[in-house]
Amino acid sequence: MKNNIKKLFSTIIVFLMAVALVMPVGASDKVDPKDNPEIDVTKTTGSITMKKKGSQFSVYKVLDATAKAGQNVFTYSKNSAFESFFGNEAYGNFTIEKIAELPNELNIRNEDGTITDPIKETVKLTTPLQKFIEDNGVQPVATITCPNDGTAVTVDNLGIGFYLIVETATHSDSASVASKSMLVPLPIIEGNKPDYSWNYNLNIAPKDEPVPLDKNIRKQNGEEFELVSSSTNNIGDILEYQVDTAIPHYDDKTDLESIKYIITDTLSVGLDFINQDKLSIVVADFSGNNKTLVKDVDYTIEYNDKTMTINFVYSNIMAYNTLQLRYNVVINENAIVGGGANLNKVELEYTNNPNTGTTSKPWDETKTYTYGIQIVKHDVSDENVRLAGAAFELQDEAGKVIAAYEYDKEGKLIVTGDGKVETDKEGLAYFVGLEAGTYYLKETKAPEGYQILDGRATLVIEADLETGDAVYTLNGTVIAETTAIENGGSASKVVVTKFANTKGFNLPKTGGAGTWMFTVGGILIMASMVTVFVKLRKKEN
User: Fold this and answer.
1) Is 25 inside any structural domain?
2) pLDDT at position 281, please?
3) Looking at residue 413, what is its pLDDT?
4) Spatial distance between the Cα atoms of 27 and 291, rounded to a whole number of angstroms
5) Residues 233 and 250 occupy one common structural domain
6) Helix %, strand %, coil % for the chain, to 5?
């Protein structure tokens, strides 16, 4: 479902585009101009037909096209309305050559005859173009208003060139999402090799799509953030969630008070809402204008244990196209450990037909995983002899001791401030709530009467973010044994790591005060023995 929702969110329109647009500089090696039919230089105009129920489109001419007799490619130049757009750093410093270099998905027909959706890549150009239009008050060369009966509308006598088409209004008797802006060449190539032909009459039919919904975790990646649907984290980590969706539009006769637009977010037992004052909601249109919504003005919010419900005032957001929500949760001590997903589900309820009052409820969810180990301490000669009182600490890759979560006598998970855990009478100790990664496990105190383990053990946790399964290796050896633990009422499991100790005592580290005391003590004992020996010899003599 998630992949389908992402496709809906990234593409609203699939329209006829072909391999014809070959610019004089930066032409694609995927497009061979020798296959183009010869251009009829007497044709200098064309038409664009739009068909989307109840929508309005503004048409802007960005580039002009010219051709000479006998040629099969057009030469493009800047349209006067967009002269100052090109080479302007404020809008991306675009040149005609750079437009030609836009991944050429602008105009590639696939081998199976399908048309590559251009929107995903051309947004690199459409977004700054719309900002330029907004900043400079550029007027469209044509406006196309499609009636609610679904009739197509044509605008004729458009000069050949390169056009930007922007949906400026969407009104329908059902919920409709505004199309993302499009770049179209006029004319385009139609047909299949070798029967290509120039088409000067474009027909574009954007579809009415349901409102998309996409939820992700904003994961820190160096100095940047990336959006992921699944992650691994430590207990105690704060997660920032991001929800992206669209704002539907309705017929102008619709009773706006009856429109529902509600976001409900539900946490699993291992997650808690925090930093409610940092919740952020921003709406935007496709021209780059945005607005930060205000609590109790543009929306109301209610928390009920693990549920957050946001009810929007539709009339305050109807002028915008997209909505982005960000908020924080913390992974608590009840998180599922060892492969089970800690889920966060979001649902959007919106009116899909104001005439009937019916609603749609798309949803999406994220998964967060955390892991753990069980330490079994035993005598080197007998695994059944369990050893209490051994202390361990866990270090990250930089050697920093990380916080430790372990169980108290009542079986409740607690954090130890010094990062150390001790084995109980059963010889057991735990490190739980661990993010996937590399760790170093070190024994800091041996059981009474046993030698302390020297050095550090390297623990590596590698997680599959699709399934949550993890592979644990200790000093390069895969650990397969696991045991179940109860955590937050949910079934959790940890991997079992065994450490054996040898009987005997370790001298303190070389150079320490203890070594010095042992050394001095030994000298005094030897001196006393020499004295006794001398006295005994004197008596014998």
Assistant:
1) yes
2) 97
3) 55
4) 39
5) yes
6) 15, 45, 40
Residue 10 phi, psi (nearest 5):
-90, -20
Q: Is residue 378 part of a domain?
A: yes
Name, in order, each residue with C-beta under 8 angstroms of 80's C-beta and a sequence gap of 6 or more.
Answer: none
Dist. CA 416–CA 407, nearest whole Å:
10
Tell me what the mean pLDDT of segment 132-156 comes to.
89
**pLDDT of 527 higher than 60:** no
Strand 299-304 with 307-312, pairing? antiparallel
Give the 3-state secondary structure of residue 391.
strand
Q: Counting every residue, how long is the chain? A: 541
Contact in structure between 466 and 417 (CB atoms under 8 Å): no
**Same domain, yes or no, for 363 and 378?**
no
- The alpha carbon of 472 is separated from its chain's Cα centroid by a whole number of angstroms, namely 25
Task: Kindly state the percentage of the chain with pLDDT values over 70.
Answer: 75
Domain membership of residue 291 as a residue range = 213-368
The per-residue pLDDT for 412 is 55
pLDDT beyond 90 at 241: yes
DSSP string of 92-161? Answer: T---HHHHHHS-SGGG-B-TTS-B---HHHHHHHHHHHHHHHHHHTPPPSEEEE--TT---EEEEEEESE
Distance CA 360, CA 21 (A): 40
Range 31-44 average pLDDT: 74
A 10 A CB-CB count for 271 gives: 22
Same domain, 384 and 359: no
Q: Residue 491: exposed, middle, or buried by beta-carbon count in 10 A (0-12, 13-18, 19+)?
A: middle
- Main-chain dihedrals φ then ψ at residue 44, nearest 5 degrees: -115, 0
Q: Considering Cα of 528, then 512, then 420, then 472, what sign does the dihedral take? A: negative
Residue 33 and residue 23: Cα distance in Å, rounded? 10
Amino acid identity of 339? G
Per the structure, how many domains does the chain have? 4
Q: Is the pTM of this model over 0.70?
A: no
